[in-house]
Design goal:
By secondary structure, the protein is an all-alpha fold. It contains five helices and no strands. The longest helix has 19 residues, at 2-20. The chain is elongated and about 90 Å long. The two termini are 67 Å apart.
Length: 98
């Protein structure tokens, strides 16, 4: 649908320019010019192809890591109980005073 409306719009603008007679030569010259392309710079700083590769060492390293750590009963007994909401608010106020 957009192609049809675009082609109709092009025909209308060509008809108005031809009736004016003012810009018809300029438009013909623009249409006769060849399409131009530019060369974009390459992102490489050196000639080494390895520079362009992404660093995937972190992703590969996770495959060879040990699994989750399961604590022993002795280690679990040494963990203090979680603080209550009031204790956390008091600690937050104490730290924000400084």
């Amino acid at each position: 649908m957009g192609f049809i409306s675009q082609s109709l719009q092009d025909k209308i603008t060509k008809a108005t320019h031809k009736s004016d007679g003012s810009n018809s030569q300029e438009q013909e010259q623009e249409q006769e010019q060849e399409q131009q392309f530019t060369i974009q710079p390459h992102p490489a700083k050196t000639n080494d192809p390895a520079d362009l590769q992404t660093n995937s060492a972190d992703a590969q390293g996770s495959l060879f890591m040990p699994g989750p750590v399961i604590t022993s009963q002795e280690q679990g007994a040494n963990i203090p109980p979680p603080s209550s909401h009031d204790e956390l608010q008091a600690r937050s106020a104490e730290l924000n005073k400084q």
